[in-house]
Automatic annotation (TrEMBL):
Keywords, comma-separated and alphabetical: Membrane, Transmembrane, Transmembrane helix
Keyword NADP: no
Annotated organism of origin: Paracoccus methylovorus
InterPro entries: DUF1468
Pfam families per record: TctB
TM region(s), chain numbering: 15-33, 54-73, 85-113, 125-143
Designated name of the protein: Tripartite tricarboxylate transporter TctB family protein
Domain DUF1468 as annotated: residue spans: 18-152
GTP-binding in keyword set: no
Length: 164
């Protein structure tokens, strides 16, 4: 099949090249970190450092594949990006990180839930934040009370489960 005259040749994909660079960095960090692990492979030759090495090499292989595809222009064209939903989710994560030890797990995660719901199109945050707080409280109760794992307790958690 020949290329018609009105089709333009695909250009290299800069975003894919950036992704490939990130894959190389992550793979290199995994390989470097695996050198610090004791290689106790014993008779089989497989030890704690084996899997990180395989994953690191796999990521570097994917990076090479991504570079080749990016230079050949094999990736499909992406639609224009909508930045607002990403900013809502990032804002929710930032709020959760800042409020986690002040307001507790349930309230901080409820705010994250509300911001994420907003990013996905739910505009009524007066409804989504309380729903998120209730769901997060049940998650906190299961992890904290049943599984005895420590999650930050805020005023809501201490109201229901006071520490004696």
């Amino acid at each position: 099949m020949s290329t018609s005259d009105h089709e333009q040749p695909r250009r290299r994909d800069t975003a894919a090249l950036i992704i490939a660079a990130g894959l190389v960095v992550i793979g290199a960090v995994m390989l470097w970190d695996s050198t610090r692990l004791a290689d106790l492979g014993g008779y089989s030759g497989v030890g704690p450092a084996s899997v990180p090495r395989v994953v690191g090499l796999g990521l570097m292989g994917l990076a090479v594949w991504t570079v080749v595809a990016a230079l050949r222009g094999d990736f499909p064209e992406r639609p224009p990006q909508n930045v607002a939903p990403v900013l809502w989710i990032v804002a929710g994560l930032a709020a959760q990180l800042m409020l986690l030890h002040v307001a507790g797990f349930s309230i901080a995660t409820g705010i994250l839930f509300g911001c994420t719901a907003r990013a996905f199109g739910k505009r009524n945050m007066a409804m989504t934040i309380p729903i998120g707080i209730v769901v997060a409280f049940f998650v906190w109760a299961i992890f904290s009370q049943l599984l005895m794992l420590h999650l930050p307790a805020g005023p809501l958690e201490q109201l229901v489960f006071p520490r004696g």
